[in-house]
């Protein structure tokens, strides 16, 4: 009997899963339901089209609808799944009724947290998500003079940078003392804040959102710092897992609101898998569950979960979270966690840091790279890292996440060899200098 | 009694060593002898000034002579050391006579291999090394229409690219079938060769140098491929360790011609250390001795050896050789060794490779990145890697050298998380794809 897998959600997780099922079982019937008009575009690119770094939305499409047909993946567009029944092995689809499956994969993604203030029904509140809507919003942006971004979340940080780059007067409202406060340390974000100021951004930190004001259309944002007149608001509150279908069906939900999965991406219900932003995944060191990871994580989880749903056997392990993004005129990034998170979790650490450079200091285009490494006292095993610079942040973040995972110590990193070639790398790799400085500090303090 | 360290050589190794001695013992007397007019400049930058990527030679100076005086490092310029006497603990210095020391550090660098053909005494044969001479040669280059580069060594590769970039008709003569054949694989170099052709370079591979022709000044190079008329020849033959002083004093010399050192950078003579290009260092996996490493290696060896010479205790271990350089319109790099070297050494391997990209494929500035990984059959531990691309090659090479050193497997690399942010990294990291492809190939072949 042919195997049938139903997938709810057409984002990176859902499509990764579709490919995973087919990889494990090329004969499997794979049906994907999505509420949207499209699949296989990059939502992560939307802020950069708004910012005019990318010339048009068409570039964000990665595959045509025909390609999925050819691959044997049956995508039902603009179709909502309203319920799942793991016991009966069916999903309820609007307009299709009950549809049966052999295995089910939930890839229902995330929602933005409700800002929970009055005025949420006004026009010109922009929640960045769907590419078709983004195309319409992009036309609106042509006539926007002043915009307010709510929260310096990862998306809020990108949108602030993009709107300022586009020439819109941009205000950023955030309740924390510095941007991206939940993941990045203030010393890492300080250059970003400076560059935003240079770009004309008006940042309002330690500032609480009180409401959206206006008649029909938003005309101002009310905050603890006063009213900010504006033509448009980008609501970039933090992501919360969209786990409604799972919760309604009695699947186990974790402390973050994400669906609990095991290393096979299997939920608590037999035959039901979940991947991407609707799940929560433990941090590799702390085992604290995390949600709101990246499209790259969603895609990898999709491949693993899809493979298992198709009869294969793949695991997806706890995460060490390399991250990075442009912010203002800088690129920030890191792996695992920084000082702020470590302190909040009560995790002791020692620091090694360095202000390095990306090329020989005389080579055109050389940029600063600040590296901060956190290690466990005593063992000096790396437990986290944060960086601010321009070149090579992504590649260093990828490496440092592996360094955390495999327990590299300050000694290991201080003894690391590095490429030296004036146009592409400095005599001293900043990671090596940071680890060396960390050891020197410990020596001076008599702790080594 | 105050401690006195004599250092012979003022390059990256010698100056790293001077700093190392002072770090271990700030009171130590440190005397550096150099044959040249300067120290503390970057010889690695010279090709890029010739190529006009860097505007002038002054930029290559990293520190002033006064800074060394202030740091308590006594540099004797244009001063030749003619002999060392490890038993008597003296060196013989031209114009100074016998000078005593407590510890001695040899940092005598390298020479270019003698091309061993007639005509070596003609004018306009340029050996790239000393910055003052480079300044003079740069003026000569203004009137050069056609140049020949002898050997596609690392320097030859850089000089070929730079001279072509400067607009000089450049011929490259090399006895091997492809450039950098001693370190890089032909598939990695193929795009470089193509881009050289686009830049107007005339490459002569499988071509033996027979002599330099001309009256007083070189006017042609004689090769197995015929005569190549030219105004100037860059002799970029491979580096050989300059170990004459050490050999004359009976210190142990290795199979490469480099001074043999232990992990403290100590030679076979008590109290005598050696660092940088005059030494040989074992490869971490094969234990085959290597010479001709980079300025970054020399500097790190200098710091370790200097520290030990000053009474401290530091080790410098076997190397895994991350490398990288611009070449033509590309950047090439890798870690440990490639297929060519593995085959030559009789080391069995399996391959995983991928043609990836450096950013989201729709993001402006996205570049291809080809990654090839070599692993030990069975264990699938990484033993080498080679890459050709543009962005992030240096950082990936640094990481991959650590991956070889710490025995990461294809499984580890295939499960690696990666940053995804359109402007700085693609959904799928090319290293991850290469490892995944390697595993897929093995599965298909029934070997996994």
UniProtKB/TrEMBL annotation, chains A, B:
<feature type="domain" description="FAD/NAD(P)-binding">
    <location>
        <begin position="4"/>
        <end position="282"/>
    </location>
</feature>
<dbReference type="InterPro" id="IPR050260">
    <property type="entry name" value="FAD-bd_OxRdtase"/>
</dbReference>
<keyword id="KW-0274">FAD</keyword>
<dbReference type="InterPro" id="IPR016156">
    <property type="entry name" value="FAD/NAD-linked_Rdtase_dimer_sf"/>
</dbReference>
<protein>
    <submittedName>
        <fullName>NADH oxidase (H2O2-forming)</fullName>
    </submittedName>
</protein>
<keyword id="KW-0285">Flavoprotein</keyword>
<feature type="domain" description="Pyridine nucleotide-disulphide oxidoreductase dimerisation">
    <location>
        <begin position="338"/>
        <end position="423"/>
    </location>
</feature>
<comment type="similarity">
    <text>Belongs to the class-III pyridine nucleotide-disulfide oxidoreductase family.</text>
</comment>
<dbReference type="GO" id="GO:0016491">
    <property type="term" value="F:oxidoreductase activity"/>
</dbReference>
<dbReference type="InterPro" id="IPR023753">
    <property type="entry name" value="FAD/NAD-binding_dom"/>
</dbReference>
<dbReference type="InterPro" id="IPR004099">
    <property type="entry name" value="Pyr_nucl-diS_OxRdtase_dimer"/>
</dbReference>
<dbReference type="InterPro" id="IPR036188">
    <property type="entry name" value="FAD/NAD-bd_sf"/>
</dbReference>
<dbReference type="Pfam" id="PF02852">
    <property type="entry name" value="Pyr_redox_dim"/>
</dbReference>
<keyword id="KW-0676">Redox-active center</keyword>
<dbReference type="Pfam" id="PF07992">
    <property type="entry name" value="Pyr_redox_2"/>
</dbReference>
<keyword id="KW-0560">Oxidoreductase</keyword>
């Amino acid at each position: 009997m042919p195997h049938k897998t139903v997938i709810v959600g057409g984002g990176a997780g859902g499509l990764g899963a579709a490919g995973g099922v087919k990889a494990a079982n090329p004969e499997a019937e794979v049906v994907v339901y999505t509420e949207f008009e499209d699949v296989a575009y990059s939502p992560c690119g939307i802020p950069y089209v708004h910012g005019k770094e990318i010339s048009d939305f068409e570039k964000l499409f990665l595959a045509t609808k025909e390609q999925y047909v050819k691959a044997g993946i049956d995508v039902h567009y603009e179709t909502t799944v309203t319920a799942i029944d793991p016991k009966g092995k069916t999903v309820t689809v609007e307009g299709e009724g009950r549809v049966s499956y052999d295995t089910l994969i939930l890839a229902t993604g995330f929602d933005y947290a409700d800002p929970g203030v009055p005025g949420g029904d006004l026009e010109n509140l922009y929640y960045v998500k769907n590419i078709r809507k983004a195309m319409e919003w992009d036309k609106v942006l042509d006539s926007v003079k002043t915009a307010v971004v709510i929260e310096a979340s990862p998306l809020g940080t990108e949108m602030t940078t993009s709107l300022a780059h586009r020439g819109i007067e941009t205000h950023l409202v955030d309740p924390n003392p510095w941007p991206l406060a939940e993941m990045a340390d203030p010393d890492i974000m300080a250059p970003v804040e400076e560059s935003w100021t240079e770009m004309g951004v008006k940042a309002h930190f330690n500032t609480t959102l009180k409401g959206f004001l206006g008649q029909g259309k938003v005309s101002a944002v009310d905050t603890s710092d006063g009213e900010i007149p504006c033509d448009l608001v980008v609501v970039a509150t933090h992501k919360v897992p969209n786990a409604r279908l799972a919760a309604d069906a009695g699947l186990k939900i974790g402390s973050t609101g994400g669906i609990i999965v095991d290393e096979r991406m299997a939920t608590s219900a037999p035959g039901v898998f979940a991947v991407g932003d609707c799940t929560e995944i433990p941090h590799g060191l702390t085992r604290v569950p995390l949600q709101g990871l990246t499209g790259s994580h969603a895609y990898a989880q999709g491949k693993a979960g899809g493979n298992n749903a198709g009869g294969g056997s793949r695991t997806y392990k706890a995460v060490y979270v390399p991250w990075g993004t442009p912010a203002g005129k800088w690129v920030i990034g890191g792996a695992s966690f920084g000082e702020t998170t470590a302190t909040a979790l009560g995790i002791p650490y020692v620091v090694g840091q360095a202000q390095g450079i990306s090329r020989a200091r005389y080579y055109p285009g050389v940029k600063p790279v600040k590296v901060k490494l956190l290690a466990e006292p005593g063992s000096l095993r790396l437990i986290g890292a944060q960086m601010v610079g321009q070149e090579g942040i992504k590649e260093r973040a990828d490496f440092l996440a592996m360094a955390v995972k495999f327990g590299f110590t300050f000694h290991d990193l201080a003894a690391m060899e590095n490429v030296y070639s004036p146009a592409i790398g400095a005599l001293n790799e900043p990671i090596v200098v940071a680890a060396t400085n960390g050891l020197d500090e410990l020596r001076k303090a008599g702790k080594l």
